[in-house]
Amino acid sequence: MDLDKRQRAMLREMGVRLWQPPSPPPVVADDAINAVAVDARLERAEARFDAELAPARGAPAAPALRPAPAQAPVSRPAPGLQPRPAGVERMDWPALQAAVAGCRACVLCESRKNTVFGIGPVAADGAAPQVDWLVVGEAPGENEDIAGEPFVGQAGKLLDNMLLAIGLQRGNADTTAPRAGVSTSVFITNVLKCRPPANRNPDPAEVAQCEPYLKRQVELLQPKMILALGKFAAQSLLQDSVPEVQKIPLGKLRGQVHSYLGVPVVVSYHPAYLLRSLGDKAKAWDDLCLAQAQLAS
Ligand code: URA
């Protein structure tokens, strides 16, 4: 396969390793400075990949945590369940954030440390950021529950590198100047906003309680592309448009452009799965290319 330098750089950012013939003689023309910069970046990306794949090979890894964003503390023990706040479908962004932070509509509120609303660029007026991409995962895990931010563990590092491979970087209140050529036009969230205890699978009743929050997030963010990562994200987003989606293997939902509230949806593997199934990283790369091409069109 003939790949140019940029394509090879993207694949290496994702950890997809290619056999290559011995290197040609060093570049000496004007491209030399760029080539040095790209090589340095690739070395850093390789080091990151080696570090993040270590746990998959059995080496112990300390969880990498980010500081938790300011969020209303949750008092415990739980005083019990309450109905989901009314009018989610009419809420603005701050009201929606507050509704999720205080939600006690399912049992997950009793064991969570923090709700995990999502992360993305912060609009000056507190309104929903208008992003090109929305990434939807399954549910917060232990690290995310502590940090109050999605995808901060090992799977999150892989997700960050996948996004970087298509020129995206997660944004937040601290992202004043993303790197040149990199966009922060992406919001990352999950189907569930609270962690299921012991990282068990989401329960259908929990998904149903959380669904209106994700729906309102989509309406307010107005993304141009939704990337659904894993079975739960795909099933939740496609249940109204794909008959019997629960019975369809994830692999069969890939490779086509679906739709949710009129927004194109591309399904791909969950990064946690990719950490265990390195061979499928190349398929995830295909999915990112499909989503990017759809967005460009
Ligand atoms: N897995 C997910 O699906 N979401 C997270 O936020 C973290 C791990």
Give the overall average pLDDT.
82
Topology order in helix (H) and strand (E) letters: HHHHEHHEHEHHEEHH
| Main beta-sheet strand count, sense and barrel state | 5 strands, mixed
- Count of DSSP E strands? 5
Shape: globular
**Name of the CATH superfamily:** Uracil-DNA glycosylase-like domain
In what range is the share of β-strand residues?
Answer: 5-15%
* CATH architecture label: 3-Layer(aba) Sandwich
What class do helices, strands and sheet pairing give? alpha/beta
Strand order of the largest sheet: 2-1-3-5-4
How many distinct helices?
A: 11
Oligomerization category of the chains in this entry: single chain
Give an account of the 3D structure.
The chain is an alpha/beta fold. It has a single domain, classed as Uracil-DNA Glycosylase, subunit E, CATH 3.40.470. It is 39% helix and 8% strand. It has 11 helices and 5 strands. Helix 1 packs antiparallel against helix 6. The chain is globular. The structure holds uracil. Residues 137-141, 144, 150-151, 155, 190, 272 line the site of uracil (URA). The site of uracil has 11 residues, from loops.
